[in-house]
Amino acid sequence: FQAEDGIRDSSTSRGLGDVYKRQIKVMVDGNRVTKRSAPALVEGVATPFTVSLGSGLTPTVSSTTCSVEDSSITALSNEGTCTVTITSSGGKNVKPLIRQYSFDLTS
């Protein structure tokens, strides 16, 4: 058949479920964080911090300029930025992921 007949090669759709599985929800002090709207962190103040993945997998969260533990994030300096790296090794039908979020540091 030719393209004019309306026949096309079928392409595999990843579907909305795959998009949802790659979603990351980052919350700081009850507010959702995006790469464009990250709040400033105050040195030495533990602020509520949660990360969840649409896949249901448990993320790994790390930072060299902030302390991230016990559902909180604490700035270790009063200037510069804190970069938080969120990773997931993936799983059945879920690709591994790595995302970074940056927060300004203040005193």
How would you sum up this structure, described in words?
There is one protein chain. The relative contact order is 0.23. A hairpin with a 2-residue loop joins strand 6 and strand 7. A 5-stranded antiparallel beta sheet has the order 2-1-4-7-6, with no helix packed on it. Strands 3-9-8-5 form a 4-stranded mixed beta sheet, with no helix packed on it. With 107 residues, it is mainly beta. The model has no long low-confidence stretch (mean pLDDT 83).
Short description:
With 107 residues, this protein is mainly beta. Helix content is 7%, strand content 44%.
Keywords:
107 residues; mainly beta; 5-stranded antiparallel beta sheet; 4-stranded mixed beta sheet; 9 strands; 44% strand
Question: Layout of SSEs?
Answer:
Layout lengths: L14 H7 L2 E5 L2 E3 L7 E2 L4 E7 L6 E4 L2 E4 L2 E4 L5 E8 L8 E10 L1
Parallel strand pairs: 3-9
Antiparallel strand pairs: 1-2, 1-4, 4-7, 5-8, 6-7, 8-9
| Biggest sheet character | 5 strands, antiparallel
Q: Would you report the number of β strands?
A: 9
- Global morphology: elongated
Helix content: under 10%
Mean pLDDT: 83
Approximate strand percentage: 35-45%
- N- to C-terminal separation? 69 Å
Structural class: mainly beta
Q: Helices and strands, in N-to-C order? A: HEEEEEEEEE
**Cα Rg:** 19 Å
